[in-house]
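#struct-pred
JK: can someone run the complex with fe (ii) ion? inputs below
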Amino acid sequence: MICLGIESTAHTFGAGIVDSEKRVLANIKDSFTTEKGGIVPAKAADHHVEVCDKVINEALETAKLSIKDIDLISFSQAPGIGHCLRIGAFAARSLAMFHNIPIIGVNHCIAHLSIGEMLTGATDPVLLYASGANTQIIAYEGKKYRVFGESLDMGVGNFLDSFARYIGLGFPGGPKIYELALKGKKFIELPYSVKGMDVSFGGLLTNLKQKFDSGKYRVEDLCYSLQETVFAMLVEVSERAMAHCGKNELLLGGGVACNKRLQEMAKEMCKERSAKCFIPENEFLVDNGAMIAWQGILEYSAGKRMSIEESVILPYQRVDEVVVNWKD
Ligand code: ATP
Ligand code: FE2
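RT: done, structure tokens with the ligand placed:
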């Protein structure tokens, strides 16, 4: 079975083609970027409208397939920005109806976890999902995916990007902060905000801006210290979720998980508790269509079906609302 997966929850419009033998035949994406300010939903949606044909055709060309070879179309049904989700759903529905191909909508967060398992061989991991809008610790427990910890305010990527923008680094800020942090030497104490299993970044962001404005600190040291602090927070709650669930695998997902320092800290924690740390390639950490395609194959193969009427977007769906039919 060959599935075309369409991703459009936020900045990225992606089209991936995956088969049931776990081969990724194509994984094409085009992302909306801004120099100033955050994501404007209507503008991101306009971007997706503009690129959707191009991205889907490029995926088919890369896979050397025609739409007639596609057995299933899947799309990100939830969660995300309504304006953006609607474009992916519309593209998926149009192709499905026109070419008479079955359609299935999937949960984006669970897709991050499933592609990680498929690529790395992890079998029952705790997922640290660290992206722009999302920061969640997710694991499968009691027949459902559940959130064991999350950010109480902004996602860790949005936090990094906000600070980067404030100090004039532009967008996306994550990679630029990483480069500066490599030149940091002095650790500056920053607010460490873990509340139970949850984290928050708002207070830390204000504190960092004040420190930057004071002119008393090297920006390299601020970047270094902020990475050490926020990644320690993320790794701490991940470790606690692993201990609570009795799981000995950690899987990383989301764009922020591309950060080599976060990867190092996650590996170190896993080593200390004799657990395994799984990290997919960057192209599968960031939002991508291949993960949506693979999730479609999993659910369809296990018998899930969706009518066009049921293929409405669900911007606020949480992972524990998903009926899981593809796992024991
Ligand atoms: P989602 O809808 O899943 O929240 P998103 O649109 O925010 O996704 P992602 O591609 O998962 O997109 O993540 C983007 C974030 O990842 C940005 O905040 C960016 O700064 C950060 N990022 C990307 N690459 C790196 C890197 N190498 N190091 C650190 N952060 C990175
Ligand atoms: Fe994502």
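RT: quick notes.
Residues 9-12, 80, 131-134, 155, 157, 160-161, 172-175, 178, 254-256, 258-259, 286-287 surround adenosine-5'-triphosphate (ligand 1) (CB under 6 Å).
The chain has a mean pLDDT of 97.
JK: thanks, will look after standup
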